[in-house]
Amino acid sequence: MDISVIGAGYVGLTTGISFAEFGNKVKFIDIDENKINKIKHGIAPIYEEGLQELIKKNFDRINATTNYENLDSIVFICVGTPSLPTGLINLQYVKQAVENVAKNLDDGLIIIKSTVFPGTTEKILLPIVRKYSDKISIAMNPEFLREGMALHDFMNPDRIIIGVIDERGEKILKKLYTPIKAPIMVTNPTTAEMIKYASNSFLATKISFANEIGNLAKILGIDVYDVMKGVSMDHRISPYFLNAGAGFGGSCFPKDLRAIASGAKKLGYDMKLINAVLEINDEQPLRLIKLLEKYMSIEGKEIAVLGLAFKANTDDIRESRSIPVIKELIKKGANVRAYDPMAMENMKKIFDIKYCNSVEEALMNADACIIMTDWKEFEDIDFRNMKNKIVIEGRKILKNREGIIYEGICW
Ligand code: UGA
Q1: How many domains does the chain have?
Q2: Among the atoms of ligand 1, which is closest to the Cα of residue 250?
Q3: Which of 55, 131, 216, 333 could cysteine-pair with 299, CB 3.0–4.6 Å?
């Protein structure tokens, strides 16, 4: 089949290149000329494991352009839905993309992959399509891709959710996903949208739950990882997403939880649990500062912050827990030196602090060190050259704690 994909971010690229790998012809459309040029030359415009190889392998089946002419009859919408100051999402890019497609397509299927508030596809996007065409159908097909693992997650999903308004949409989507072995659930678009929000809300709730239990475990002098090991032996709970630490970041969980809570509030419903999950997450990174203050006043001290990315194996710093930590350290008068294997260029756009080329450089004569991201290279750090060997951990990654003054956030 011939497919157009609007938006060449990690969701659009993963979706498009995976369908190309299944033998379909795929056209990427993005307003960013730089990205489009890279794809045209067979270069992955972002880092995602395995993406470069698949672009190379399927080069003759992919195309890229900045214009909406000559669209294929199957179109995936994968543009961003960033947060507004109110917590609601900014739908502008999705609406614009859908309108541009509807203007340029006689007949076909528009599939929304962007994460949108329940009701959006049927109540907002379908009416836009209907202004231009009575024939085009619409569907909602949420993604459950982790950044950095997106291709693996696309090819090996737990389930595929298809929200459709007619049989044609169901048929096309089922055919497209034939190569993937996973249960397919067919539902309406609004339910599909809610499944996405509910899934992310539940995973984020597990993390804040682990952090809340972890904060009490810390007071009691026990390790929350031992607690959760025992808890997750109950198959009804499962061990995933119970790793306590400095809280969740990234472009999805914080944004999606704010969006569902703000959207619910607009509809007159107060989501107490989701708001508590967010509140715990906001407070969590600042606990690291309190732990540090047990040992020193922060003003004028040289503090090394190791790990800037919101999780390991990415250069993405969106909503990274290291941001509120660095902000607070600066507010309290610290001299912050930071190191991250991939994310320093991005952090330079936010903080004018000292960026170091290695862990060793960041630790040299430092008064204290805070570990914020679980990068593998942080497992075996040599703290020998620190001035005071005070180490505060927001992610449980260190293998050896000998010879240092150590505090884990929840252990
Ligand atoms: C998340 C979901 O895992 C995907 O299923 C979803 O498709 C995606 O959002 C999205 O909505 O697009 P992602 O944001 O890439 O994926 O990252 P995760 O690996 O889920 O981690 C999110 C945050 O939670 C990170 O800051 C991570 O460090 C933190 N986390 C994760 C914990 O603190 N503890 C855990 O046990 C797991």
Answers
A1: 3
A2: 14
A3: 333
